[in-house]
Amino acid sequence: MEHRKIPVSQRIVHNNANISVCGPVTSAFLQDLAIHPDLDAFRRPHEQLEALIEIAALPEGRVIAAVYNSLLVGYITFHYPDEMELWSQGNMEDLIELGAIEVADAYRGGGLGKQMLAAAFEEGQLENCIVFTTEYYWHWDLKGSGLDVWAYRSMMEKLMKPAGMVWYATDDPEICSHPANCLMVRIGREVPLSSQETFDRVRFRQRFMY
User: Fold this and answer.
1) Is the pTM of this model over 0.85?
2) Tens digits of per-residue pLDDT, 52-82?
3) How many angstroms separate the CA atoms of 97 and 119, rounded?
4) Residue 59 CB: number of other CB atoms within 10 A?
């Protein structure tokens, strides 16, 4: 399968700071950056930077970065689903997971998340893929945002919608374990019907549900 990686870059101003939104970036690019200490939602910041470097080196992996003066202040990752997860069971080359999106606290509210998502889909890079993300409330920064689970879910849906990511039904046990959890999906224009049907079989274990 062709994994299209067409670098794009743009600058936005947030609180008088000129921030570069760019990607997919290379491992070498990330190695030259420091990481903001607030980027700790999934692991310790230095470990997160190491993980991003590894993802950027994968054939299918891509990292979209928000950078201020050589400081990484936000990122989005894309990669194949973990082989231990339900989503890998279809052995689909064209199924890509939007694994994480994170913006440092001081840089929130300026549209960085939306800009990074827009950059990820520019130039038709992912039109030959099904892109999905699993949203679990226990990963959300409810304390930092001051939002409850439903307000946070609404915020995530508004963030994803401009990129074409929409809610899809599933009977995945983890997603079904809490009503605020959700599956969001974008099916590229070039994805064949056979892949869409395989994805339907993956997202529904109980066949009578679709």
Assistant:
1) yes
2) 999 999 999 999 999 999 999 999 999 999 9
3) 16
4) 9
